[in-house]
Queue: 3 jobs
Job 1
Amino acid sequence: MAEQPADIDSYIAGFEEPVRDILAGIRRTIAQALPAASEAISYQIPTFKLDGHNVVHFAGWKGHVSLYPIPAGDAAFEEAIAPYRAGKGTLKFELGEPVPYDLIAQVATRLAARS
Protein backbone atom coordinates (compact mmCIF):
# COMPACT_ATOMS: atom_id res chain seq x y z
CA MET A 1 0.00 0.00 0.00
CA ALA A 2 1.55 3.25 -1.12
CA GLU A 3 -0.65 5.71 0.74
CA GLN A 4 -2.30 5.53 4.12
CA PRO A 5 -5.85 4.17 3.83
CA ALA A 6 -8.64 6.31 5.27
CA ASP A 7 -10.15 3.46 7.28
CA ILE A 8 -10.07 -0.29 7.77
CA ASP A 9 -12.56 -0.88 4.94
CA SER A 10 -10.19 0.88 2.53
CA TYR A 11 -7.21 -1.02 3.91
CA ILE A 12 -8.86 -4.41 3.41
CA ALA A 13 -10.17 -3.47 -0.04
CA GLY A 14 -6.59 -2.88 -1.17
CA PHE A 15 -5.79 -6.60 -1.00
CA GLU A 16 -6.58 -9.53 -3.27
CA GLU A 17 -8.23 -12.72 -2.08
CA PRO A 18 -7.51 -14.67 0.07
CA VAL A 19 -5.80 -11.95 2.13
CA ARG A 20 -8.90 -9.73 1.99
CA ASP A 21 -11.15 -12.43 3.43
CA ILE A 22 -8.69 -13.30 6.19
CA LEU A 23 -8.27 -9.65 7.17
CA ALA A 24 -12.05 -9.26 7.32
CA GLY A 25 -12.21 -12.35 9.56
CA ILE A 26 -9.54 -10.97 11.87
CA ARG A 27 -11.40 -7.67 12.04
CA ARG A 28 -14.68 -9.42 12.96
CA THR A 29 -12.90 -11.56 15.54
CA ILE A 30 -11.28 -8.60 17.28
CA ALA A 31 -14.49 -6.53 17.12
CA GLN A 32 -16.39 -9.37 18.82
CA ALA A 33 -13.68 -9.86 21.43
CA LEU A 34 -13.44 -6.11 22.16
CA PRO A 35 -16.95 -4.70 21.63
CA ALA A 36 -16.04 -1.38 23.33
CA ALA A 37 -13.04 -0.80 21.05
CA SER A 38 -12.95 1.71 18.23
CA GLU A 39 -11.31 1.17 14.87
CA ALA A 40 -8.54 3.31 13.41
CA ILE A 41 -5.59 3.26 11.10
CA SER A 42 -2.34 3.66 13.00
CA TYR A 43 1.15 3.04 11.62
CA GLN A 44 -0.69 2.62 8.27
CA ILE A 45 -2.37 -0.60 9.46
CA PRO A 46 -5.73 -1.49 11.06
CA THR A 47 -5.81 -0.84 14.79
CA PHE A 48 -8.31 -1.34 17.57
CA LYS A 49 -8.26 1.21 20.39
CA LEU A 50 -9.69 1.36 23.89
CA ASP A 51 -9.92 4.64 25.78
CA GLY A 52 -7.83 6.32 23.08
CA HIS A 53 -4.96 3.83 23.38
CA ASN A 54 -3.85 1.40 20.67
CA VAL A 55 -4.55 -2.16 21.79
CA VAL A 56 -4.01 -4.46 18.82
CA HIS A 57 -2.92 -4.06 15.19
CA PHE A 58 -3.18 -6.40 12.22
CA ALA A 59 -1.77 -6.29 8.72
CA GLY A 60 -1.87 -8.08 5.41
CA TRP A 61 1.15 -9.12 3.39
CA LYS A 62 1.64 -11.04 0.18
CA GLY A 63 2.11 -14.45 1.80
CA HIS A 64 0.77 -13.97 5.33
CA VAL A 65 -1.15 -11.80 7.75
CA SER A 66 0.24 -10.51 11.04
CA LEU A 67 -1.02 -9.48 14.46
CA TYR A 68 0.81 -7.10 16.80
CA PRO A 69 1.86 -6.93 19.66
CA ILE A 70 1.97 -10.21 21.57
CA PRO A 71 0.85 -10.12 25.20
CA ALA A 72 2.61 -12.04 27.93
CA GLY A 73 0.88 -15.19 29.02
CA ASP A 74 1.06 -18.37 30.99
CA ALA A 75 2.76 -21.51 29.71
CA ALA A 76 -0.35 -22.77 27.90
CA PHE A 77 -0.80 -19.46 26.08
CA GLU A 78 2.89 -19.32 25.15
CA GLU A 79 2.63 -22.85 23.76
CA ALA A 80 -0.47 -21.91 21.75
CA ILE A 81 1.18 -18.90 20.09
CA ALA A 82 4.60 -20.52 19.56
CA PRO A 83 3.87 -21.83 16.03
CA TYR A 84 2.91 -18.31 14.91
CA ARG A 85 5.61 -16.26 16.64
CA ALA A 86 7.65 -14.25 14.17
CA GLY A 87 9.84 -12.09 16.31
CA LYS A 88 9.39 -10.60 19.73
CA GLY A 89 6.14 -8.75 19.08
CA THR A 90 4.56 -10.37 16.03
CA LEU A 91 2.32 -13.31 15.26
CA LYS A 92 2.41 -14.42 11.63
CA PHE A 93 -0.31 -16.52 9.99
CA GLU A 94 0.73 -18.03 6.66
CA LEU A 95 -1.73 -17.99 3.77
CA GLY A 96 -3.04 -21.44 2.96
CA GLU A 97 -2.97 -22.49 6.61
CA PRO A 98 -6.00 -22.37 8.92
CA VAL A 99 -6.24 -19.05 10.75
CA PRO A 100 -6.63 -19.54 14.53
CA TYR A 101 -9.37 -16.97 15.07
CA ASP A 102 -9.99 -18.19 18.65
CA LEU A 103 -6.32 -17.53 19.43
CA ILE A 104 -6.59 -14.07 17.85
CA ALA A 105 -9.54 -13.33 20.15
CA GLN A 106 -7.46 -14.45 23.15
CA VAL A 107 -4.60 -12.18 22.11
CA ALA A 108 -6.98 -9.22 21.78
CA THR A 109 -8.63 -9.77 25.16
CA ARG A 110 -5.26 -10.23 26.89
CA LEU A 111 -3.98 -7.02 25.33
CA ALA A 112 -7.14 -5.15 26.34
CA ALA A 113 -6.82 -6.38 29.92
CA ARG A 114 -3.35 -4.87 30.23
CA SER A 115 -4.23 -1.50 28.72
Job 2
Amino acid sequence: MNVHESALPWTSDLRVRLDELLDEHRAMLHDSLDGLTEEEARRSLVPSRTTLLGLVKHVTYVEHVWFDQALTGRTLRDLGAPPTPDRSFILSKTDTIETVRAAYAAACAKSRRLVADLALDEEVTGRGPRALWAIYAHMLRELAQHCGHADILREQVLAGRE
Protein backbone atom coordinates (compact mmCIF):
# COMPACT_ATOMS: atom_id res chain seq x y z
CA MET A 1 0.00 0.00 0.00
CA ASN A 2 1.22 3.48 -0.83
CA VAL A 3 1.99 5.52 2.30
CA HIS A 4 -0.54 8.11 1.13
CA GLU A 5 -3.42 5.65 0.78
CA SER A 6 -5.68 5.32 3.78
CA ALA A 7 -5.86 1.93 5.45
CA LEU A 8 -9.12 3.03 7.04
CA PRO A 9 -12.51 3.00 5.29
CA TRP A 10 -14.13 6.33 4.55
CA THR A 11 -16.93 7.47 6.79
CA SER A 12 -19.63 10.11 6.56
CA ASP A 13 -19.09 11.05 10.22
CA LEU A 14 -17.04 14.25 10.02
CA ARG A 15 -15.48 13.92 13.48
CA VAL A 16 -14.43 10.33 12.86
CA ARG A 17 -12.96 11.28 9.48
CA LEU A 18 -11.03 14.24 10.91
CA ASP A 19 -9.60 12.03 13.65
CA GLU A 20 -8.62 9.47 10.99
CA LEU A 21 -6.90 12.12 8.88
CA LEU A 22 -4.99 13.49 11.85
CA ASP A 23 -3.83 10.01 12.78
CA GLU A 24 -2.83 9.20 9.19
CA HIS A 25 -0.65 12.30 9.04
CA ARG A 26 0.76 11.64 12.51
CA ALA A 27 1.71 8.13 11.41
CA MET A 28 3.37 9.42 8.24
CA LEU A 29 5.57 11.75 10.26
CA HIS A 30 6.40 9.02 12.77
CA ASP A 31 7.19 6.60 9.95
CA SER A 32 9.41 9.10 8.11
CA LEU A 33 12.17 7.97 10.49
CA ASP A 34 11.79 4.25 9.72
CA GLY A 35 15.03 2.51 8.86
CA LEU A 36 17.19 5.60 9.23
CA THR A 37 20.37 5.85 11.22
CA GLU A 38 20.64 8.53 13.89
CA GLU A 39 22.98 10.47 11.59
CA GLU A 40 20.55 10.26 8.67
CA ALA A 41 17.65 11.43 10.83
CA ARG A 42 19.72 14.47 11.89
CA ARG A 43 21.13 15.21 8.43
CA SER A 44 20.72 18.84 7.44
CA LEU A 45 19.83 19.15 3.76
CA VAL A 46 18.32 22.63 3.70
CA PRO A 47 19.53 26.01 5.05
CA SER A 48 16.94 26.03 7.85
CA ARG A 49 17.02 23.87 10.99
CA THR A 50 14.69 21.39 9.30
CA THR A 51 15.82 17.77 9.56
CA LEU A 52 13.69 14.65 9.66
CA LEU A 53 14.25 14.21 13.39
CA GLY A 54 13.69 17.94 13.90
CA LEU A 55 10.39 17.77 12.02
CA VAL A 56 9.07 15.09 14.36
CA LYS A 57 10.29 17.10 17.34
CA HIS A 58 8.54 20.18 15.90
CA VAL A 59 5.21 18.43 15.39
CA THR A 60 5.41 17.32 19.02
CA TYR A 61 5.57 21.02 19.88
CA VAL A 62 2.61 21.67 17.54
CA GLU A 63 0.53 19.03 19.36
CA HIS A 64 1.39 20.71 22.68
CA VAL A 65 0.41 24.16 21.41
CA TRP A 66 -2.70 23.43 19.36
CA PHE A 67 -4.27 20.78 21.53
CA ASP A 68 -2.86 20.94 25.06
CA GLN A 69 -2.36 24.70 25.38
CA ALA A 70 -5.43 25.57 23.29
CA LEU A 71 -7.64 23.37 25.46
CA THR A 72 -6.06 23.77 28.90
CA GLY A 73 -4.59 27.28 28.74
CA ARG A 74 -1.32 26.03 30.23
CA THR A 75 1.80 28.00 29.31
CA LEU A 76 4.47 26.61 27.00
CA ARG A 77 6.81 26.56 29.98
CA ASP A 78 4.28 24.50 31.97
CA LEU A 79 4.04 22.13 29.02
CA GLY A 80 7.83 21.79 28.79
CA ALA A 81 7.68 23.13 25.23
CA PRO A 82 10.11 25.54 23.57
CA PRO A 83 9.07 29.22 23.59
CA THR A 84 8.89 29.54 19.79
CA PRO A 85 8.15 27.30 16.79
CA ASP A 86 11.65 27.86 15.39
CA ARG A 87 13.26 26.61 18.60
CA SER A 88 11.17 23.44 18.47
CA PHE A 89 13.36 22.16 15.61
CA ILE A 90 16.54 22.33 17.71
CA LEU A 91 17.89 18.91 18.57
CA SER A 92 19.76 18.21 21.77
CA LYS A 93 22.52 15.62 22.04
CA THR A 94 20.14 13.36 23.94
CA ASP A 95 17.46 13.45 21.22
CA THR A 96 17.34 10.13 19.38
CA ILE A 97 14.88 8.59 16.98
CA GLU A 98 13.50 6.55 19.88
CA THR A 99 13.16 9.44 22.35
CA VAL A 100 11.68 11.89 19.84
CA ARG A 101 9.20 9.28 18.60
CA ALA A 102 8.21 8.45 22.19
CA ALA A 103 7.63 12.12 23.00
CA TYR A 104 5.58 12.52 19.82
CA ALA A 105 3.47 9.44 20.58
CA ALA A 106 2.82 10.73 24.11
CA ALA A 107 1.81 14.18 22.84
CA CYS A 108 -0.55 12.66 20.25
CA ALA A 109 -2.12 10.38 22.86
CA LYS A 110 -2.66 13.35 25.16
CA SER A 111 -4.22 15.34 22.31
CA ARG A 112 -6.65 12.49 21.65
CA ARG A 113 -7.60 12.34 25.34
CA LEU A 114 -8.12 16.10 25.58
CA VAL A 115 -10.57 16.22 22.66
CA ALA A 116 -12.32 12.90 23.24
CA ASP A 117 -15.38 14.36 24.95
CA LEU A 118 -15.60 17.63 23.01
CA ALA A 119 -17.82 18.40 20.04
CA LEU A 120 -16.29 19.97 16.93
CA ASP A 121 -18.30 23.15 17.43
CA GLU A 122 -17.34 23.45 21.09
CA GLU A 123 -15.40 26.61 21.92
CA VAL A 124 -11.99 26.31 23.56
CA THR A 125 -10.19 29.33 24.96
CA GLY A 126 -6.60 28.39 25.90
CA ARG A 127 -5.08 30.28 22.95
CA GLY A 128 -7.99 32.61 22.48
CA PRO A 129 -11.57 31.61 21.73
CA ARG A 130 -12.07 29.30 18.76
CA ALA A 131 -14.11 26.23 17.87
CA LEU A 132 -12.44 22.84 18.12
CA TRP A 133 -13.01 22.34 14.38
CA ALA A 134 -10.70 25.31 13.74
CA ILE A 135 -7.93 23.59 15.69
CA TYR A 136 -8.48 20.41 13.68
CA ALA A 137 -8.27 22.39 10.43
CA HIS A 138 -5.08 24.13 11.54
CA MET A 139 -3.49 20.86 12.66
CA LEU A 140 -4.34 19.13 9.40
CA ARG A 141 -2.74 21.97 7.43
CA GLU A 142 0.32 21.91 9.66
CA LEU A 143 0.77 18.15 9.56
CA ALA A 144 0.15 17.93 5.81
CA GLN A 145 2.78 20.60 5.17
CA HIS A 146 5.33 18.79 7.33
CA CYS A 147 4.51 15.42 5.76
CA GLY A 148 5.50 16.97 2.43
CA HIS A 149 8.73 18.25 3.92
CA ALA A 150 9.44 14.82 5.39
CA ASP A 151 8.78 13.07 2.06
CA ILE A 152 11.30 15.26 0.29
CA LEU A 153 13.94 15.08 3.03
CA ARG A 154 13.60 11.30 3.31
CA GLU A 155 13.96 10.97 -0.46
CA GLN A 156 17.15 13.03 -0.31
CA VAL A 157 18.54 11.04 2.63
CA LEU A 158 17.85 7.71 0.95
CA ALA A 159 19.30 8.95 -2.36
CA GLY A 160 22.50 9.77 -0.47
CA ARG A 161 22.94 6.08 0.35
CA GLU A 162 23.52 5.18 -3.30
Job 3
Amino acid sequence: MKVAADIIALIEGQPDMMRLLHVVERLALPDCWIGAGFVRNAVWDVLHDRTPDCTRLNDVDVVFFDGADASRRRDDAIEGKLRLTCPGVPWSVSNQARMHAHNNDDPYADVGSAIARWPETATAVAARSVLGRVELLAPHGIDDLINLIVRPTTAFAARRYVVDERLRTKEWLNRWPQLTVV
Protein backbone atom coordinates (compact mmCIF):
# COMPACT_ATOMS: atom_id res chain seq x y z
CA MET A 1 0.00 0.00 0.00
CA LYS A 2 1.69 3.14 -1.24
CA VAL A 3 -0.81 5.70 -2.55
CA ALA A 4 -4.39 6.86 -1.97
CA ALA A 5 -5.56 4.76 -4.92
CA ASP A 6 -4.41 1.66 -3.01
CA ILE A 7 -6.62 2.62 -0.06
CA ILE A 8 -9.54 3.27 -2.39
CA ALA A 9 -9.00 -0.15 -4.03
CA LEU A 10 -8.90 -1.76 -0.59
CA ILE A 11 -12.23 -0.18 0.38
CA GLU A 12 -13.83 -0.99 -2.98
CA GLY A 13 -12.78 -4.61 -2.47
CA GLN A 14 -14.51 -4.88 0.92
CA PRO A 15 -18.24 -5.62 0.49
CA ASP A 16 -19.09 -4.65 4.09
CA MET A 17 -17.35 -1.29 3.79
CA MET A 18 -19.00 -0.61 0.43
CA ARG A 19 -22.41 -1.51 1.83
CA LEU A 20 -22.03 1.06 4.62
CA LEU A 21 -20.73 3.71 2.21
CA HIS A 22 -23.70 3.13 -0.12
CA VAL A 23 -26.17 3.38 2.77
CA VAL A 24 -24.66 6.72 3.79
CA GLU A 25 -24.52 7.93 0.18
CA ARG A 26 -28.28 7.36 -0.15
CA LEU A 27 -28.86 9.84 2.69
CA ALA A 28 -27.66 12.59 0.32
CA LEU A 29 -26.21 14.67 3.16
CA PRO A 30 -23.92 17.55 2.18
CA ASP A 31 -20.15 16.94 2.34
CA CYS A 32 -20.77 13.54 3.93
CA TRP A 33 -18.11 10.94 4.73
CA ILE A 34 -17.39 7.95 6.97
CA GLY A 35 -14.17 8.60 8.81
CA ALA A 36 -11.68 7.68 11.50
CA GLY A 37 -11.46 3.98 12.39
CA PHE A 38 -13.56 2.98 9.39
CA VAL A 39 -10.62 3.70 7.09
CA ARG A 40 -7.70 3.61 9.55
CA ASN A 41 -8.52 0.18 10.99
CA ALA A 42 -8.99 -1.37 7.54
CA VAL A 43 -5.61 -0.10 6.38
CA TRP A 44 -3.83 -1.16 9.55
CA ASP A 45 -5.50 -4.59 9.43
CA VAL A 46 -4.29 -5.18 5.87
CA LEU A 47 -0.79 -3.98 6.78
CA HIS A 48 -0.86 -6.57 9.58
CA ASP A 49 -1.94 -9.31 7.13
CA ARG A 50 -5.52 -9.39 8.41
CA THR A 51 -8.83 -9.04 6.61
CA PRO A 52 -10.60 -5.79 7.54
CA ASP A 53 -13.61 -6.42 9.76
CA CYS A 54 -16.28 -3.73 10.16
CA THR A 55 -17.86 -5.68 13.02
CA ARG A 56 -14.85 -4.81 15.20
CA LEU A 57 -15.45 -1.06 14.93
CA ASN A 58 -16.42 0.73 18.16
CA ASP A 59 -18.46 3.09 16.00
CA VAL A 60 -19.00 4.07 12.41
CA ASP A 61 -18.32 7.81 12.31
CA VAL A 62 -20.56 9.54 9.77
CA VAL A 63 -19.53 13.17 9.41
CA PHE A 64 -21.13 15.81 7.24
CA PHE A 65 -21.27 19.57 7.02
CA ASP A 66 -24.50 21.55 6.92
CA GLY A 67 -24.70 24.99 8.53
CA ALA A 68 -28.44 25.25 7.84
CA ASP A 69 -29.32 22.77 10.61
CA ALA A 70 -26.49 21.85 12.94
CA SER A 71 -28.70 20.56 15.76
CA ARG A 72 -27.87 17.41 17.68
CA ARG A 73 -31.51 16.44 17.20
CA ARG A 74 -30.91 16.18 13.46
CA ASP A 75 -27.86 13.97 14.01
CA ASP A 76 -29.94 11.73 16.27
CA ALA A 77 -32.66 11.46 13.62
CA ILE A 78 -30.08 10.47 11.00
CA GLU A 79 -28.61 7.88 13.36
CA GLY A 80 -32.12 6.50 13.85
CA LYS A 81 -32.58 6.13 10.08
CA LEU A 82 -29.23 4.40 9.78
CA ARG A 83 -30.05 2.00 12.62
CA LEU A 84 -33.29 1.05 10.88
CA THR A 85 -31.46 0.50 7.59
CA CYS A 86 -28.49 -1.36 9.11
CA PRO A 87 -29.37 -2.71 12.55
CA GLY A 88 -26.44 -3.67 14.73
CA VAL A 89 -24.05 -1.13 13.22
CA PRO A 90 -22.78 1.31 15.89
CA TRP A 91 -23.52 4.51 13.95
CA SER A 92 -22.27 7.85 15.23
CA VAL A 93 -23.39 10.92 13.27
CA SER A 94 -21.91 14.40 13.74
CA ASN A 95 -22.59 17.52 11.74
CA GLN A 96 -19.18 19.17 11.70
CA ALA A 97 -20.80 22.60 11.34
CA ARG A 98 -21.28 22.63 15.11
CA MET A 99 -18.32 20.59 16.33
CA HIS A 100 -15.97 23.58 16.45
CA ALA A 101 -17.87 24.78 19.55
CA HIS A 102 -17.50 21.35 21.17
CA ASN A 103 -13.76 21.44 20.46
CA ASN A 104 -13.18 25.11 21.35
CA ASP A 105 -12.01 25.88 17.81
CA ASP A 106 -12.80 28.54 15.27
CA PRO A 107 -15.68 27.50 12.99
CA TYR A 108 -14.83 24.84 10.43
CA ALA A 109 -15.36 25.53 6.73
CA ASP A 110 -16.13 21.95 5.74
CA VAL A 111 -15.55 18.34 6.77
CA GLY A 112 -11.92 18.47 5.64
CA SER A 113 -11.09 21.34 7.97
CA ALA A 114 -12.93 19.58 10.79
CA ILE A 115 -11.24 16.20 10.51
CA ALA A 116 -7.87 17.90 10.17
CA ARG A 117 -8.36 18.67 13.88
CA TRP A 118 -8.96 15.05 14.93
CA PRO A 119 -6.36 13.62 17.38
CA GLU A 120 -4.04 11.61 15.11
CA THR A 121 -2.94 12.13 11.53
CA ALA A 122 -3.71 8.49 10.71
CA THR A 123 -7.22 8.92 12.10
CA ALA A 124 -7.90 12.14 10.16
CA VAL A 125 -9.04 10.28 7.08
CA ALA A 126 -12.45 9.56 5.60
CA ALA A 127 -14.10 7.89 2.64
CA ARG A 128 -17.34 8.34 0.78
CA SER A 129 -19.15 6.89 -2.17
CA VAL A 130 -20.21 9.24 -4.96
CA LEU A 131 -22.25 7.50 -7.62
CA GLY A 132 -20.76 4.24 -6.40
CA ARG A 133 -17.12 5.35 -6.64
CA VAL A 134 -15.01 5.75 -3.53
CA GLU A 135 -13.34 9.07 -2.75
CA LEU A 136 -10.78 9.59 0.00
CA LEU A 137 -10.31 12.67 2.19
CA ALA A 138 -7.01 12.94 4.09
CA PRO A 139 -6.11 16.51 5.10
CA HIS A 140 -2.78 15.36 6.59
CA GLY A 141 -2.05 12.99 3.74
CA ILE A 142 -1.78 9.22 4.04
CA ASP A 143 1.91 8.74 4.82
CA ASP A 144 1.43 8.18 8.56
CA LEU A 145 -1.54 5.90 7.92
CA ILE A 146 0.23 3.61 5.46
CA ASN A 147 3.48 3.70 7.41
CA LEU A 148 1.73 2.64 10.64
CA ILE A 149 2.66 5.85 12.47
CA VAL A 150 0.61 7.27 15.32
CA ARG A 151 1.31 10.99 15.49
CA PRO A 152 -0.79 13.78 17.02
CA THR A 153 -2.19 16.32 14.61
CA THR A 154 -1.08 19.90 15.15
CA ALA A 155 -4.36 20.48 16.98
CA PHE A 156 -3.41 17.83 19.55
CA ALA A 157 0.34 18.45 19.83
CA ALA A 158 -0.16 20.28 23.12
CA ARG A 159 -2.68 17.67 24.29
CA ARG A 160 -0.58 14.59 23.69
CA TYR A 161 -2.20 12.95 26.71
CA VAL A 162 -5.39 12.52 24.63
CA VAL A 163 -3.52 10.49 22.01
CA ASP A 164 -1.77 8.46 24.73
CA GLU A 165 -5.12 7.73 26.39
CA ARG A 166 -6.63 6.64 23.06
CA LEU A 167 -3.67 4.33 22.45
CA ARG A 168 -4.16 2.74 25.85
CA THR A 169 -7.95 2.45 25.99
CA LYS A 170 -8.35 1.32 22.38
CA GLU A 171 -5.42 -1.12 22.79
CA TRP A 172 -4.00 -0.21 19.40
CA LEU A 173 -0.52 -1.54 20.15
CA ASN A 174 -1.96 -4.93 21.12
CA ARG A 175 -4.06 -5.14 17.97
CA TRP A 176 -1.46 -3.62 15.61
CA PRO A 177 1.98 -4.29 17.16
CA GLN A 178 3.87 -2.84 14.17
CA LEU A 179 2.64 0.68 14.96
CA THR A 180 5.23 3.35 15.69
CA VAL A 181 4.21 6.04 18.15
CA VAL A 182 5.83 9.42 17.46
